[in-house]
Amino acid sequence: MKPFLYIVYDILFMDEHNHIRHEKNLKLAFILTLCVLATEFFGAIISKSMALYADSGHIFVDASSLLLAWIAQSQIKKEPTAKNTYGFHRLGILTALLNAALLLIISIVLMYESYLRLIHPEIVNSKLMILFASISFIINIIIGFKIYKDTHQNLNIKSSFFHIIGDSIISFSIIIAGILTYLTRLYYFDTTIGLFVAPIIAIGAFSVINETINILLEAVPKEIDYIKVQEEILKVECVKNVHDLHIWSLSKSFILLSSHVLIDDKIKDSADLCCIINNIQYMLSKKFKINHTVIQPELTMCKKNNGYCVAHQI
Fold this sequence. Notes:
Blueprint: H1 11-14, H2 16-47, H3 50-76, H4 89-119, H5 126-148, H6 155-184, H7 189-216, H8 226-234, E1 239-251, E2 254-263, H9 270-288, E3 292-299
Parallel strand pairs: 2-3
Antiparallel strand pairs: 1-2
Helix pairs in contact: 2-3, 2-5, 3-4, 3-6, 4-6, 4-7, 5-6, 6-7
C-alpha cells in the first residue's frame, strides 16, 4: 500500500488516483458479488440448504452495501461547492455506518434462523452444498484480495471488506458442514453455521461503527497522538506556545488541524512569519500525514491585548 504523499495541497485533489482505483475495485466487487448471489440462491433452491439460503440473503445485503459504497466513492470525487465547502467526504462515512448497521442486523437474523433450523432440521443435498459453497468461497476470496489494499485508506471500503470476510467465512463453513453432513448424515451441521458466524460478523460491524462515530463526533483520529503533535509544533524554531489545538477528520484519510501558535517577539517581518507557518505545515504533513491545516500566528506582545492587534496586523 502506497502512503499519501502530499505537503501543502488539499487531499481531495491530490488523492485522485486512489479515488479512481477505489471506484474501479468497488465496481468489480459489486459485479462479482452479484455472480455469487445468483450462484448461491440457485444452489439453495435445488439443495434445500438453510445455510445457502441464509448466505444468499447475506450476500444480497452485501451487494446492496457495495452498490452504496460505489455510489458514495463516485460522489467523493465531486469538487466542493458553496454549500458543501469540504466536498462530500462524509457521504462515504455515512454509507460505512449504514453498512455496519446492516451487518449487525444480519448477525441477529442469522442467529435466529439458525436456532430455528437447529430445533427443526431438514434433509439437505450435501453434495450440492459443497459445490455451490466452494464456488462462492473462491469468488469471495478474489473480491477480498482485490479491495483489501484500500481498507486502510477508506473506511467505507473497510466496511465492505468486512462484508466480504463474513461471506468467505460462511462459505467455508458451509463447505465443512456439507462434508460433515455427507459423512455422518446428520443435518444439524447445516444450521450451526449461523451461530458460529454471527459473532464474527458483529465484531467487524462494531469496529466500523466505532470508527465512523469517532469521525462524526470529530474526535482526534486514533492514529494521531494529540500530545505528540503539540510537542512537535513547539520544536519548530521561534514557536513559544501552542493552544486552541484541534485535530479531526472528514474521512479515514482526510485529517485536518487548526491551532493558535504563539511566535517569538523578535519575528517582525511577515515573510519570516510565513516561513515559520510553512515549517509547521511541512512538519505536520511529513510526521503525521496532516495535510489540511489552519495555523493562526500570534505574537508574544499581542497576547496582552486579548484580541485583534491592528498595529501588527495579526
